[in-house]
């Protein structure tokens, strides 16, 4: 009978260690998210909870189906492959956890068996390939093609996040395939053909013999777990946070007419003189931005050679926010008068942003 053996070849101490590390990972993740939310709450109030149905539809269309993202064909296919590869592999991990830790322990049965388990293995194998294909496309585009819109003046301080995200996801996927292949090389199940990548990897290791393959399997299982937990824990502290911030930003986007003036705020100041003058939604805009550069490509001010980039504007404002100003004024220190006046308020940037940041509102 085909069945999911979640902790095959894993000693009890490693199994316990996984649960403890999983708990620690969740705590670090929640701490990071709470830190971000506290930062948003420092902004001025703004109501963005009306028309819940329209907001939920926007999340389905633009965060799940990513309709605006695929308007750029190469980047769209690339991102869809990465996104759905991650979603399906994560869902597979959740199903395996429920199968082993819930239904097996509390109800005495496993549902990942026979035909369902074989289908489960095939789907995860294929979507793992989608993930790796998307990562390969992203690496080729960012480091070989190097389109101008992905190049910035922020240097290594932010560029490392791109390499980290691509590298970690690739390592997680590759070690997952190696673990599957080593398990298949030892057990040689009759349904192995339904795990095509696992079977191909297994063929590379069969000659090493079972003892060596078991040792390699355990070492890679531990490595895979550490990589996955590190990745999850790092989400709130890196560019990866757009996984959370982008759907929220799409949900809370303005549903009013484009360019409509916001209601007057009861304050003696007009506009933003310090980071505390921004609304919570504007702060969320800064943190949802992924520096993809689509706004810069569409900006007529940037195209005409003026010293303005809507992408760089968002990066500067986010850095200013993180540093709580650090004694620098928004006007003059962070943004020059030439930058501010170069913007024509055409909203071309806001019309192409895949996560619906409002650069003009900033």
Please tell me about this protein's structure.
- With 362 residues, the protein is mostly helical.
- The chain has a domain of 202 residues.
- Helices cover 63% and strands 0% of the residues.
- It is built from 14 helices and no strands.
- The protein is elongated and about 70 Å long.
- The model has no long low-confidence stretch (mean pLDDT 91).
Secondary structure layout plus pairing:
Elements: H1 12-41, H2 52-64, H3 73-107, H4 114-145, H5 156-187, H6 196-205, H7 210-234, H8 242-251, H9 280-288, H10 294-298, H11 300-303, H12 310-322, H13 337-342, H14 348-352
Features of this protein?
mainly alpha
| Estimated share of beta-strand residues | under 5%
Number of helices: 14
Distance between the amino and carboxyl termini: 59 Å
**Sheet with most strands:** none
- Uncertain regions spanning at least 5 consecutive residues: none
Task: Give a quick summary of the entry.
Helix content is 63%, strand content 0%. It contains 14 helices and no strands. It is elongated.
């Amino acid at each position: 009978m085909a069945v999911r053996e979640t902790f095959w070849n894993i000693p009890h101490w490693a199994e316990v260690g996984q649960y403890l590390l999983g708990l620690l990972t969740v705590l670090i993740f929640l701490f990071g998210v709470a830190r971000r939310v506290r930062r948003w709450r420092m902004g001025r109030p703004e109501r963005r909870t009306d028309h819940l149905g329209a907001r939920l539809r926007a999340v389905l269309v633009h965060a799940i189906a990513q309709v605006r993202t695929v308007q750029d064909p190469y980047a769209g296919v690339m991102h869809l492959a990465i996104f759905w590869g991650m979603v399906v592999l994560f869902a597979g991990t959740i199903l395996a956890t429920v199968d082993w830790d819930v239904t097996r322990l509390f109800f005495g049965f496993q549902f990942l068996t026979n035909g369902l388990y074989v289908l489960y293995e095939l789907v995860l194998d294929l979507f793992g390939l989608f993930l790796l294909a998307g990562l390969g496309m992203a690496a080729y585009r960012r480091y070989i093609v190097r389109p101008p819109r992905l190049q910035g003046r922020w240097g290594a301080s932010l560029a490392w996040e791109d390499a980290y995200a691509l590298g970690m996801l690739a390592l997680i996927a590759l070690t997952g395939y190696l673990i599957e292949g080593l398990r298949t090389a030892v057990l040689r199940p009759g349904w192995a053909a339904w795990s095509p990548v696992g079977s191909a990897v297994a063929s590379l290791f069969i000659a090493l013999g079972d003892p060596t393959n078991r040792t390699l399997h355990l070492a890679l299982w531990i490595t895979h777990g550490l990589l996955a937990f590190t990745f999850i824990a790092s989400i709130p502290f890196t560019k990866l946070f757009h996984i959370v911030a982008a759907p929220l930003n799409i949900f809370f986007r303005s549903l009013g007419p484009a360019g409509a003036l916001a209601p007057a705020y009861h304050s003696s100041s007009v506009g933003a003189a310090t980071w505390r003058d921004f609304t919570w939604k504007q702060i969320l805009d800064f943190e949802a931005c992924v520096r993809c550069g689509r706004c810069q490509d569409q900006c007529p001010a940037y195209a005409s050679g003026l010293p303005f980039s809507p992408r760089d504007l968002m990066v500067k404002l986010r850095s200013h926010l993180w540093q709580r100003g650090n004694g620098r004024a928004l006007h003059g220190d962070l943004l020059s008068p030439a930058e501010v006046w170069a913007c024509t308020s055409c909203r071309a940037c806001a019309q192409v942003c895949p996560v619906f940041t409002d650069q003009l509102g900033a």
